[in-house]
Design goal:
alpha/beta; 7-stranded mixed beta sheet; disordered N terminus; about 35% helix; about 20% strand; 3-stranded antiparallel beta sheet; Rossmann fold
Length: about 260
């Protein structure tokens, strides 16, 4: 049976493949060794979207919790994540995908959080309007696929398969579409009041084939925060299509890679 250390080393070796196209390193930082990881999902998904990453982190000996983001209002989403962070004992890596980068940015100032990780995620600054920031870059195709039923929004099946999870087998993507959680329109009105990435070591995984968030916007946010950055040849859901790469980045953020 493979030991935890051997598994971690195998994962590190595995990502030195075509999954990662480029990577940059911010200035050297001494990382607190973390044994806890808290994960948050974004729009059009639920906590199970982290499943493949969770398996790899647990095999490396980490305590992992995936928050079920309520997707209602921004304050409620942040409060949900903070309750999970409160329960962690010791240094904790706080990672978010897509919209939940907003939650990581706001709630990541929590004293239990040692590092913040963004996976194809929003990362605005305090007081910054994300929509205005995003307009500086070409609009990604998925934006036109959002449909509303009253105050609840979701992604159309065509946009989900093509623009959200385009590098997954269609059968897998259709399952993810079937369990898609609608989000409340009010959620999008939330603004950051504090930016954790200004005070905590930051890591960012750019999805080079992303059609949900413009990859150049991802690069801009990663560079601005001085993050340790990798570029993964993946759709918006790199945490599903390239879990080795994402798990390795989180292991590095935990001081274990």
């Amino acid at each position: 049976m493979m030991s935890r250390r051997d598994f971690s080393m195998a994962v590190v070796a595995n990502v030195a493949t075509s999954a990662i196209s480029t990577c940059t390193m911010a200035g050297p930082n001494a990382l607190a060794r973390a044994r806890n990881v808290v994960l948050v999902h974004g729009l059009f998904a639920d906590g199970s979207s982290w499943t493949e990453v969770i398996v790899r982190l647990q095999a490396a000996g980490l305590n992992v919790i995936s928050v079920q983001n309520p997707l209602t209002t921004f304050p409620e989403a942040v409060a949900s994540a903070k309750r999970v962070l409160d329960r962690q004992n010791g240094p904790t890596v706080f990672a978010g995908h897509s919209f939940s980068g907003m939650i990581v940015t706001e709630a990541g100032v929590h004293p239990n959080v040692s590092t913040v990780v963004y996976v194809a995620a929003r990362a605005p600054d305090a007081g910054e309007d994300y929509a205005t920031l995003a307009k500086r870059f070409p609009t990604p195709p998925a934006s036109s696929g959002i449909i509303f039923d009253g105050d609840e929004g979701s992604l159309s099946e065509e946009a989900f398969l093509r623009d959200f999870a385009g590098d997954l087998p269609e059968t897998r993507a259709r399952v993810l579409y079937a369990v898609q959680e609608p989000f409340r329109k009010e959620l999008l009105a939330g603004k950051i009041t504090q930016a954790a990435w200004r005070a905590k070591p930051s890591f960012y995984a750019v999805s080079t084939d992303d059609r949900t968030i413009n990859p150049d916007l991802e690069r801009f946010m990663a560079k601005r925060m001085g993050a340790r950055t990798i570029e993964v040849k993946a759709s918006h859901v790199s945490l599903i299509s390239q879990p080795d790469a994402i798990a390795t980045l989180i292991l590095e953020a935990a001081g274990q890679a």
